[in-house]
Design a protein that fits this description.
The protein is α/β, with parallel strands linked by helices and 620 residues long. It contains 21 helices and 18 strands. Helix content is 41%, strand content 13%. Helix 13 packs parallel to helix 14 and helix 16 runs antiparallel to helix 17. The longest helix has 21 residues. Bound molecules: zinc ion. The site of zinc ion has 7 residues, from helix 10.
């Protein structure tokens, strides 16, 4: 994997490029740019795709044509390479003309993989070289973002500027290959809008999209998702009464409820293997099949399991020996299937002796960490132990998968100032051999705390972790919040500073199940900083419906915190506080009606309970 900075740092001198590329120089007065479209003029360029273009390459051509037209009013024709090479062409993918124009004695697509691309000017032509899978489409989005100024901030908020022309430097030779093979910001908007996910150059393994949007190369098959499949593979309901010995022994007793499996029992291995095989046979094309612990502790302490775990100095000992054995059997029939398992909570520490089979991928989870700052920079003890664990896993596989957490799951809307951790963590994962990165956020509803910003930033950094933060923040705030940007930025910086200073103490981490009582936003901060910022922000955009919606929904976060702090104290509250609570409840409920898909907590019972309380408060 390699990366060349997107901002034309890798630019060859024009003459050298032309010579090396074997391209003819254009005659004319201004050779410095390729003018792909000029407002008010006839289309000079033609988009050329391979005759056997993939669905995503055909879609790439349509996206380029449509956004170019929206930007400049010029509609570029699309043809295939069955036609003669047009006088001026934008060649997508690898057409029959591409290699000769690129003139390097090798395929122009070499080294790009499935997702990378190369923008290469061969005046008067522009090559957008990429694989049929996704690379070509992503190359087109690079052209549109960088040279046409298009931005896709959320599924409902894009910026497509009106321009006089779209011009690409006639010297460009830019190669980009993403830092991670799998890039998945698991947030609501991406999950439910595959066209938006494609524009962010990410994939969603849990709701795979059509081929034209890039499909999904990281799908989990056979109903065996990336987490917690033991109950599916050997159900206590079916087996426990006759075979309690299949299930975990905890404090001397076999558990029926909230149990794990007894992983050293040969019958358990036989049944699970047979069920895994059956599920793969029913859905053989997927990349992964998950064989993993249930979502609680209660690992088996029977003498046989305990002996293995003692020897391996980790409960991952029994787990990996078991999963390796399943994977060995699977490989005989499905040599390409990969068995994924969790390195999560009690299995996060790698076993001392056993090594992963080559067809086993561990999904290492950061659930215990402090997210106020990047993992290596936090004084919180769990962060140090996570770092020790990733060190143990990273040498055992070339496909390390990380499940990282980027929101507060108890209270999605609550301020969760983790943006200063995101980039550092993504760099940390890249530097530790992670190839598949799953960034779980508020996946059940929109407008969690800075949800749209976090989704956008994650996608940018999963592509290139080196992109500097400030220009990205400037870009998003201006594009998404419009005139409210400076005020929301003040609030954003303020709450992050408050959090960072609080979490310098090792006993005050930012955790993903924090309750409102743990929020770093003190009453003083809310009254003296936050209220003022949001009042000015709302005022600034009151005449612009698009940004006004974004600002109202972003302000949900602070209002949520205020109300949820007030609610438990209402019995002894002053009349003024009671009136404030009522007004907050009404305003929050109105916004929930307007946005439709707001979810307050991952836990549905908590979501419902909060809603019920708000409705009671707001009632006349
Ligand atoms: Zn056991």
């Amino acid at each position: 994997m390699f990366w060349y900075n997107g901002d034309m740092k890798r630019v060859m001198p024009f003459a050298l490029c032309a010579l090396a590329a074997g391209c003819a120089l254009v005659s004319g007065t201004d050779n410095s740019t390729l003018k792909l479209a000029v407002r008010g003029k006839q289309a000079a360029y033609t988009i050329v795709i391979p005759e056997a273009a993939s669905p995503s390459q055909k879609y790439a051509a349509e996206e380029l044509r449509d956004f170019t037209e929206q930007t400049t009013g010029v509609k570029l024709p699309i043809v295939t390479d069955a036609e003669p090479l047009p006088k001026k062409a934008i060649l997508l993918g690898v057409t029959k003309y591409t290699d000769e124009l690129a003139g390097r004695g090798k395929s122009a697509a070499e080294g790009l993989g499935t997702d990378g691309f190369r923008l290469l000017a061969c005046p008067p032509h522009l090559l957008v070289v990429g694989a049929p899978d996704r690379g070509t489409l992503y190359g087109v989005y690079e052209v549109l973002e960088r040279f046409a100024g298009c931005r896709w901030y959320s599924s409902w908020h894009s910026v497509v500027p009106k321009r006089e022309s779209i011009e690409v430097p006639a010297t460009i030779d830019d190669v980009q290959v993403p830092a991670f093979a799998m890039r998945e910001p698991y947030w609501f908007d991406v999950k439910h809008h595959p066209e938006f996910a494609a524009r962010l150059r990410v994939q969603v393994s849990r709701s795979p999209s059509e081929e034209k949007y890039g499909g999904c190369a990281f799908r989990f098959g056979g109903g065996l998702s990336s987490c917690h499949t033991f109950e599916k593979l050997l159900s206590p309901g079916k087996y426990f009464d006759e075979h309690p010995e299949y299930f975990s022994m905890v404090k001397g007793e076999r558990l029926k409820k909230r149990s794990q499996l007894c992983l050293t029992n040969p019958d358990v291995l036989r049944i699970v293997t047979s069920n895994v095989l059956e599920r793969i046979r029913s859905d053989p094309g997927a990349k992964f099949y998950g064989v993993s612990q249930n979502d609680w502790y209660n690992y088996c302490e029977c003498p046989s399991c305990k002996a293995v775990d003692d020897e391996e100095e980790s409960h991952a000992g029994t787990m990996i020996r078991f999963v390796n054995a399943v994977a060995e059997a699977v490989e005989k029939e499905f040599p390409n299937a990969i068995i994924e398992t969790l390195a999560y909570q009690y299995t996060r520490k790698p076993p001392k002796k056993t090594r992963l089979r080559h067809n086993v991928v561990p999904c290492l989870c950061t659930i215990e960490c402090d997210f106020s700052r990047p993992i290596p920079e936090s004084p919180y003890g769990q962060n140090a132990s996570f770092m020790a664990d990733i060190n143990g896993w990273k040498t055992q596989t070339d496909q390390l998968y990380v499940w990282d957490y980027t929101t507060d799951f108890s209270h999605y809307p609550m301020p969760f100032p983790n943006v200063y951790a995101l980039q550092g963590n993504i760099k940390f994962f890249r530097d530790n051999n992670v190839k598949e990165l799953f960034e779980q956020g508020a996946y059940q509803g929109r407008h969690a705390d800075f949800a749209e910003l976090k989704t956008w930033l994650l996608s940018k950094w999963m592509w290139n972790p080196e992109l500097p933060m400030k220009p990205l923040l400037d870009d998003f705030f201006e594009g998404y919040y419009g005139k409210a940007a400076p005020y929301i930025r003040d609030y954003f910086e303020g709450i992050h500073m408050v959090q960072l200073s609080r979490s310098t103490s090792p006993d005050k981490p930012l955790l993903i199940f924090d309750d409102v009582s743990k929020s770093a936003a003190s009453q003083t901060f809310l009254t003296h900083v936050a209220d003022d910022c949001w009042r000015k922000a709302l005022e600034a955009v009151k005449d612009d419906p698009a940004t006004s919606y974004n600002v109202r929904m972003a302000a949900f976060s602070v209002d949520y915190l205020k109300l949820e702090r007030l609610r438990p104290k209402l019995a002894e509250a002053s009349d003024e506080e009671k009136a404030e609570a009522k007004s907050l409840a009404k305003s929050l409920l109105e916004r929930m009606d307007e946005a439709k898909d707001i979810r307050l907590s991952e836990n549905l019972k908590r979501h419902d309970a909060i809603l019920k309380a708000w409705r009671a408060l707001a009632a006349p």
